[in-house]
Each structure stands twice: as C-alpha cells, then as structure tokens.
Amino acid sequence: MKKLVGATGFISLLFSLTCQADTVNLNNGDQVSGEIITLDSKVLIIDTKYAGEIELNWEDISTLVSDSEVTMMLPDRSTVKGKITGLSNGQLDLVGGTSSSINLSDISKIAPVSDGSYATSGHSHLGGSYKQGNTDTFSLHTDIEYVIENEVNRFTLGGMYNFGRQDRTENENNLRLFGKYDRFIDEHWYGYMNTDYTKDRIKNLDFRIYGGGGLGYQFWNDDIKYLTVEAGAGYTYQDYNDSIKKNRVPDINNSAIRESFDISAVQVFGESKGYANARWAVDLRYWLLEDRLQFFHDHEGIVAFDGESFSVKTHTGFRVPVYEGVNLLAQFDYDYDNQNKRNGADSLSDYRYILGIGYAF
C-alpha cells in the first residue's frame, strides 16, 4: 500500500540500515532509502523493504542519489540519463549518462532507463438490450480501442458498431472506424493527425471520411486522471445511397407533382460533397473511487467553415471493475447532426443508453 511520508524523524534510523539503495533526502532532514520506481505528477514513488511503496511530494525533496542509472524527463519532453550521485548548487550530479548535471527543479518525470519501447493499452465493450411483448425491441453495441505509445509517440486505433431493431424494422445500423497519431512536443503539448470513417444505413449514408490535424494539450495522464483537449482543422467527404435517392424522387414528368414538388430538396437530399471544417475534442477519464469506479466523458465536434454542416458526438458513463480487467459499463451517447433531416433521417439527434460488460488491458 502506498503511504504519504511526513516529517517523521525516526524513519531516518531505519533507512540507515539499508545499503546499495537509492536514497532521497527531504527538506526537513529525513532520509528515505529504497528503489526509485517513478516520478510523475510531482510525486516520487520509492519502494522500501520495510514499508512497501511510499509516495513523496517532489517539493519536499532536497536531493537524491540513485544506485543505478535512471531516465529523467524535462519540461520540453527531452530526456537525460545517468546515475545520480548527489546535489550541488541546486543541481543533481550525474555520472555514466548523457549529462553531468541537471537542475532539480527542471525534472518533471523519473523512470528506469527506457530503450524507447512501446507500451500498449486498450479496452473493448459489448452491450445491448432485448424486450419482447407488445413491442419487440433489440439493440447491440460493441466498441474497441487500442493504444500503443512511448514517451514521444502515441498511436490510437478503434471502432464501434451499433445495431437496433423494433418489430422487425431496423432503427439503427452504423459503423465507425478511427485512427489518430500524437507527437508530443513537450510534457503537455502535442501535434496530432487523425482520420475517421463512418457508415450509417438508417441515415442513408454510404460513407463519410474525415482527415485532419491540429494541436492538443494533455492536462493529466496518471493512474487517477486523464484529460486532453484538441483543436484543429480537416476535410470531410461524404456520399449518400444513390438507390435511396432515386426511390425518393417523384415522377417529375407528372405536371401536378412537378408543380408541388420542391426540386431543391432532391438536390440537397443524398448530395455527395466535400467540405473543409474545424474540429475540437475533449477526452476525460477520472477514478472517483480508485480502482472501483471510473467516470469518463469524451466528445468531438466538427463544424464546416461555410456554416452548413455541424455535428457533435459524445460518450459519457461509468466503468466498474469486477475482476482482472473485466468491468461493467453504463454509458449514454448523444449524437447531433444538422444534416440528418435533409438527408432522410427523422431527427437531428440520436440518443443511446448502453449497459454492458467490457475488458481493459
């Protein structure tokens, strides 16, 4: 169990019994010895033989000495490697690495020496509902996301599928695939490129493809909380089902129908077009109860520069871990697209309530 260390003088005596260990000196004169695990979000974690993992606030540390080589990250996300031998004039002295010294206040992260290898993470969910009686309804939702990253690069791939039926009539059938690449500039700022593919049978959408890029800012990324915001620009091309268009166009050779029919509606409905747009996105994950209850919310908005198209996709909910990566899911989705009615759908908005089970790794 992790503990936050305060000003406890008797601890120094216990630490003096250890040898061949990393050593941390605190501003109040106390000394902690063990193995440095990591420094992130201004909290240093050191593993001790007598008390397990202990958390130390970074501002309470006056100096430290490492028994082996470590990697230290600076605010500009560059790294310095070396074995820490002590403190002099506000700088950590290093040997056997890429620098001879570094300002203690400049260090934002510490980790074991990395070979640049990538870490992977992700999740998948399956949910839905079934009701039989006066009205027979069935719904299915599935999604997956896979992330591979190191200190500089982050790749994200994912997709989701939704299907719904009421009394043998489909009322939802859509697929979305997406990919994104993030390149970190420093600890918080990153540039990104992303692409998105959507197909929606109910809205008569054969496909919508988006590609773009921009800047992102990562506020948090630790074991408790994660928050990023993004803004950029891109280009969208979409195409609607030709057979549906033809079925909905009346016989304009009939004079009576021709006089009452607004041909401009045909030109809008099913229109294939491309347009430049602006994009913003937010991604938040927060453990309300550590390892017991996680809240999440993400949304993405796209608005055409000509003002004709505007859409927002949101996903909000809770995850409850139950066993070895398996979790229960309660999620609410809200999608808005001002092109829906113009292209044959019944409403500008779509709502979706999801209860399911998932797996995170």
Can you tag this structure with a few keywords?
single chain, 361 residues, mainly beta, SH3 type barrels, Porin, twelve-stranded antiparallel β-barrel, six-stranded mixed β-sheet, elongated
Description:
The chain has 361 residues and is mostly beta strands. The chain has 2 domains: 3-112, SH3 type barrels; 119-360, monomeric porin ompg (Porin), CATH 2.40.160. Helix content is 7%, strand content 63%. It contains 4 helices and 23 strands. The strands form 3 sheets. A 12-stranded antiparallel β-barrel has the order 12-13-14-15-16-17-18-19-20-21-22-23. Strand 13 and strand 14 form a beta hairpin. The longest helix is centred in the last third of the chain and has 7 residues, at 242-248. The radius of gyration is 28 Å and the shape is elongated. The relative contact order is 0.09. The model is unreliable at 1-19, 244-252 and 256-269 (pLDDT under 50).
